[in-house]
Design goal:
alpha+beta, HIT family, subunit A, 2 domains, three-stranded antiparallel β-sheet, 15 strands, binds zinc ion
């Protein structure tokens, strides 16, 4: 059973997921994945019998494009009950939901190689699962993310996303405070300012603005921001998902070409369920490490100014 414990000094929640220690860690233990790579992979097309029943599959076995599975090594589980301890420390049992969305049946295909149609399908299904999960009792926050590459924490090589519904709001200050301040959205104000300045804009279309944020934590960090105030991923329209997939299709190869085998995380940043936030996507390349200074201080050292990063992305080299 999983458990969340609260740090009494910072308010941060740490997840203890006993069963995760058994997960495969293909990369850490350097288990050789052969070039065809797929014999033992539970996510490959044709290997449906290696996983528990799918929660969603968009075609018959052997010809699906997207599958959603319950995570075999969840950080939270559906069975656990929510318990609050009335003592010096606080803990909550990890009731929640943890799903894996396998976004390609092909073992070696990576998201930067996906067709436009596939990217769009992925976004549509992610949103569908988000909308389903947000209706679950006790889910206060949903984190959608994707780890690409070993340095970004990917433990199974086959491309996939994770969708985690949590019983508590993570203690990231931005999430707790929200974007609404004195009746107006700070994020909307930031976008207006970025448009005016035009130094950190990488790309834009009718619906989205791609920027390298002013106080980027990671070298070449990118945010894909909806121009209109969208309070939650659930409220993104079908047309906006389509235009988002066009942007993502253009941007990801540029991230991948930062250097050989660069790892990166793609995170959807949402607020508390039913809260008012400015939903957006953050792409975090993992160049250099999260090291002692960052852990000790909570501050980041970034060797690339966001203005330089924006220039790089605009050139597209
Ligand atoms: Zn596979
Ligand atoms: Zn806004």
């Amino acid at each position: 059973m999983s458990e969340l414990r609260r740090n009494p000094f910072t308010g941060e929640w740490t997840h203890y997921a006993e069963n995760r220690k058994n997960r495969p860690y293909e990369f850490l233990h350097k288990i050789e994945v052969k070039l065809n790579g797929s014999e033992d992979c539970p996510f490959c097309g044709g290997h449906e019998d290696k996983t528990t029943c799918s929660l969603y599959q968009d075609g018959a076995n052997d010809c699906w494009k997207i599958r959603v599975l319950p995570n075999m090594f969840p950080t939270v589980s559906e069975e656990a009950e929510v318990l609050l301890e009335n003592a010096f420390y606080q803990h909550i049992s990890g009731r929640g939901f943890h799903e894996v969305l396998v976004d390609t049946p092909h073992h070696e295909e990576t998201i930067d190689q996906f067709s436009l149609e596939q990217l769009q399908r992925v976004l549509v299904v992610l949103q569908m699962r988000y909308c389903k999960m947000m209706k679950e009792e006790d889910v206060k926050y949903i984190q959608i993310f994707k780890n690409c590459g070993a340095s970004a924490g990917m433990s199974i090589r086959h491309s996939h996303w994770q969708i985690v519904g949590l019983p508590v709001l993570p203690q990231r200050e931005e999430l707790m405070r929200g974007h609404m301040q004195e009746g107006s959205c700070l994020f909307c104000k930031m976008l207006a300012y970025e448009k005016e300045q035009a130094v950190r804009i990488v790309e834009e279309n009718n619906d989205f603005l791609v920027i390298t944020p002013y106080a980027s934590r990671f070298p070449y960090e990118l945010w894909i921001c909806p121009k209109r105030h969208i309070a939650s991923f659930a409220n993104v329209t079908a047309g906006e998902l389509e235009s988002l997939s066009v942007l993502v299709k253009g941007i990801l190869p540029k991230v991948s070409s930062l250097r050989k085998d660069v790892g990166y995380n793609i995170c959807m940043i949402d607020g508390e369920i039913s809260g008012d936030f400015h939903w957006h996507i953050e792409i975090l390349p993992r160049i250099g490490g999260f090291a002692g200074f960052e852990y000790a201080t909570g501050s980041y050292i970034n060797s690339i100014l966001p203005e330089q990063a924006a220039e790089y992305y605009r050139k597209g080299e």
